[in-house]
Amino acid sequence: MFSLEAVLLWGYCHLRIMSLLTTLPFVGEREEQPQEKQPPRKKHAKLFHRKTRTGCKRCRVRRVKCDETRPICNNCTRLDLDCDYAHSSAKRKGNENNSAQSPASLSCGECVINSDGVVQPQETTARRKLELELLYHYSTEVGPAHNADKFSQKFLGPFTCQAALQSDAVLYAVCMVAALHKAHISVNGSSRYMDHCLTYANLALQSHHQQVANLDPDNVDFSCLTSSLLRLYKYYQLQNRPLEPYAPPMEWLRMCNTSNIVFRKAWGFLEDKQETVSGRLMLEISQNLEEQGRMEHSNELMHLLRRQEPHELEEQWDDEVLKVYKRTLSCLGWLWKHRFDSDPPYGVSRRLFLFPMLVDTQFVAFIEEQRPRALIILAHYFALLAIIRQLWFVGDAGLREANAIAAAVPPAWLGMLIQPLEILKDPSLLCNIQPKA
């Protein structure tokens, strides 16, 4: 019998031999080399579809670029579609607000979604005080400052303040304009009030979309008022936009032009209410639309249709183009006729605001293409806009734009700009508008 020591020694030797055999390669077998660890491949950044991420619902579904013109984008205008902008359907958490939202969107507290799908700040003491401050400022400073004529004073003064107590869209638009005016006159707090202005501009646009989508006799006045106040904001932006290199103010022009659709829809409800403030405004718009196609006031502008020089003959031209230019000049002819009157007729200021609303969408397209003839006609309008340069939201915007167009058009076309350039040299030649009954 083997001793215990011998058995343990044999077992130990057996284990050592087996361990050596498992670590040695077989004869003729290539020894396996350790593989170097490959660095992980970088993943491509996720690219979002920038064309349709924030556009209207129609453009997002069609996956086409939306210019985001409000209240109705250019694509929906061209195709005669209902235009609606999508909004977030979930309430944002406080941490998300702090990290993702801009200061403008936080100026009134955490945002929530109301029953109409409109994103708006929560009801807080700070928000109520801010809106009271802005409404008071509008009623005491902004409304009375609109002194182009007494009708405009009433339309943008007491009538608007009363409507703000009945319509969220009008209230937000009033707060937007009041905050804009405070930023305009402030020395130290301009950035804070501009944040408030942007906040209420977004709120006004959202509420305005809801009203336009559900237009009826009860909200038609509010829709017209909100549209007018939103256009006022766009006029103010013309004063500070960069002009070199020159690009036409398409956002302003599209917004003014598409608002015509809102007023056309509204006319069906106001045709029998011409004694109301909005009805009176709509009647004037309707009369201006009837003037299109008639050239009775446009004799002094007929040279803008000339086609004699080589550069004029090279321009893209057909009967439809001629028709568009004639209709545009018919919208401008009455204003141009009375530009130097010592006692100008009633309604000059409102016709100045109506011009970009009434021009054809084809003319807007010509401006976007920067056709020289279209830009020259637009320069005539901007030269006339200096008539109301005393209004704080207009200022020198018209003079700046007309000068920039004169510097941008090819030199061969400058002969058509002689008369606007004379106005730019001495704007005091233009008629002086005083409030009239």
UniProtKB/TrEMBL annotation:
Which CDD domains does this UniProt record tie to the protein? GAL4 (cd00067)
Q: Where does the signal sequence lie?
A: 1-29
Q: In terms of domain of life, where is this protein from?
A: Eukaryota
Q: Which PROSITE patterns match?
A: ZN2_CY6_FUNGAL_1, ZN2_CY6_FUNGAL_2
Q: What Pfam families does the record tag this protein with?
A: Zn_clus
Annotated InterPro entries: Sterol_Uptake_Regulator, Zn2-C6_fun-type_DNA-bd_sf, Zn2Cys6_DnaBD
Would you tell me the protein name for this molecule?
Zn(2)-C6 fungal-type domain-containing protein
Q: What is the lineage of its organism?
A: Eukaryota, Fungi, Dikarya, Ascomycota, Pezizomycotina
